[in-house]
Design goal:
This protein has 150 residues and is mainly β. Helix content is 11%, strand content 33%. It has two helices and seven strands. A hairpin with a 2-residue loop joins strand 3 (63-68) and strand 4 (71-76). The longest helix has 11 residues, at 17-27. The protein is elongated.
């Protein structure tokens, strides 16, 4: 296995601690990545995204979508007190889960819907006007008046 030393990144940048921490977290092999439930991330437009999570067997009341500390957290918990069933084959997992997605600073959650066993969370990037690129006019020096010697 390869390990990466991010120390040069910390020395050569100012204010990018969050990016370096995120890279460190992604590259660390100590944390097993959950595989349940499966999900897709779609890019719908230049600034629009959709996360679709397969949540077969969960009702709207058993699902939760929350924004906390720059992360989108999706949870699913089966309701207590459901009658116990006897399965001959159980291929649809309905175990409790928590999925976390780290979000960019300017991503906003615009809505969530639960349709046909899929939970869709829509996101839009809203970059503030102050952070958008803008052209700066360059002021030239005033032209010198020509003098005529008589």
């Amino acid at each position: 296995m390869r390990t990466f030393d991010l120390a040069p990144l910390y020395r050569a940048t100012v204010g990018f601690d969050r990016v370096a921490d995120m890279m460190d977290r992604v590259l660390s092999a100590d944390v097993p990545q959950p595989t349940y439930p499966p999900y897709n991330i779609e890019k719908l437009d230049e600034n629009a995204y959709r996360i679709s999570i397969a949540v077969a067997g969960f009702s709207d009341e058993e699902l939760g979508v929350e924004l906390r500390e720059g992360a989108l957290i999706v949870t699913g918990r089966k309701a207590e007190g459901e009658p116990e069933k006897t399965y001959l084959h159980r291929g649809i997992a309905t175990r409790a889960f928590e999925r976390r997605f780290a979000l960019d600073d300017h991503l906003k959650v615009t809505g969530a819907s639960h349709v046909d066993g899929m939970l869709h969370v829509d996101l839009v990037r809203e970059v503030p006007e102050a952070l958008k690129p803008r052209r700066i006019d360059i002021a030239g020096s005033a032209p010198k008046a020509a003098t005529i010697d008589a």
